[in-house]
């Protein structure tokens, strides 16, 4: 993986932590967003752990460039945020990030998050995700997602998308809708294809920006409406 942060001490701490995991390796470090993009193209790492606030080119634009590069289709971006003060996190998800982490995440949780995103899943915890989406997607300047909207989905697919937006994983979606986990996974894959979404993180953005999921609606309420 690549580590992108403008603070040397932060990069050093992350590198030491990653080195403690036998299944991970740091193949490069970047102090600016532009360096992160250049290293992503040169090293073709599976994952870039990207700080949002960096000089030269911020983490959002760097994420957008990586996600838009067809040669880097297999590279995923995990964004670092201070959460309470960083109002750019949803823009990072729009740009193509597969998830986000708070900088004070505990070491074991950080390693598990890296494994989750590298494996192809989006890192979207229901609580933080809901709060972030509700806070920033109410803006009248919200961008419309690329590709088709939820109108192209079947009723069952709309139900699945709603639960994805609430932060449920495939097993939880299967339990909520009386499906097998494999069927739930198949639905999610088809939805991603129809909506031209890179991963589950972008499905969340589509669900909120299209109005399929209303900010402020509780997870339990939405789940009962879907059944």
UniProtKB/TrEMBL annotation:
Asked whether the UniProt record includes Lipid metabolism among its keywords, one would answer: no
Keyword Transcription set for record: yes
The segment(s) forming the HTH luxR-type domain are 146-211
Give the InterPro entries listed for this entry: CheY-like_superfamily, NreC/VraR/RcsB-like_REC, Sig_transdc_resp-reg_C-effctor, Sig_transdc_resp-reg_receiver, Tscrpt_reg_LuxR_C, WalR-like
- What organism is recorded for this protein? Streptomyces coelicolor (strain ATCC BAA-471 / A3(2) / M145)
User: Which protein is depicted?
Assistant: Two-component system response regulator
Looking at the record, the residues that make up the Response regulatory domain are: 1-118
**Record-linked PANTHER family:** TRANSCRIPTIONAL REGULATORY PROTEIN NARL-RELATED, TWO-COMPONENT RESPONSE REGULATOR
Residue positions of the PTM 4-aspartylphosphate?
51
| Superkingdom, taxonomy of origin | Bacteria
**GO molecular function, one example?**
transcription cis-regulatory region binding
Its taxonomic placement starts with:
Bacteria, Bacillati, Actinomycetota, Actinomycetes, Kitasatosporales
Concerning Gene3D superfamilies, the annotation shows: 3.40.50.2300
Query: GO biological process: what's one of them?
Result: regulation of DNA-templated transcription
Q: What does the UniProt keyword field contain?
A: DNA-binding, Phosphoprotein, Transcription, Transcription regulation
């Amino acid at each position: 993986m690549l580590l992108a942060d403008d603070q040397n001490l932060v990069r050093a701490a992350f590198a030491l932590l990653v080195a403690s995991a036998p299944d991970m390796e740091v193949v490069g470090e970047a102090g600016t967003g532009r360096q992160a993009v250049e290293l992503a193209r040169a090293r073709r790492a599976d994952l870039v752990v990207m700080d949002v606030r960096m000089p030269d080119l911020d983490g959002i634009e760097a994420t957008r460039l990586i996600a838009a590069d067809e040669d880097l289709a297999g590279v995923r971006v995990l964004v670092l945020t201070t959460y309470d003060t960083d109002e750019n996190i949803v823009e990072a998800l729009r740009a193509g990030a597969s998830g986000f982490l708070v900088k004070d995440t505990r070491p074991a949780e950080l390693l598990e998050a890296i494994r989750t995103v590298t494996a192809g899943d989006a890192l979207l915890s229901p609580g933080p995700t809901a709060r972030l989406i509700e806070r920033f997607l109410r803006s009248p300047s919200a961008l419309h997602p690329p590709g088709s909207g939820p109108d192209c989905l079947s009723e069952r697919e709309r139900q699945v998308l709603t639960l994805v937006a609430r932060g449920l994983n495939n097993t939880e979606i299967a339990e909520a809708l009386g499906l097998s986990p494999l069927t739930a996974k198949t639905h999610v894959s088809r939805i991603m294809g129809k909506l031209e979404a890179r991963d589950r993180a972008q499905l969340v953005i589509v669900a909120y920006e299209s109005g399929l999921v209303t900010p402020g609606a509780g997870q339990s309420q939405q789940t009962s409406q879907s059944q």
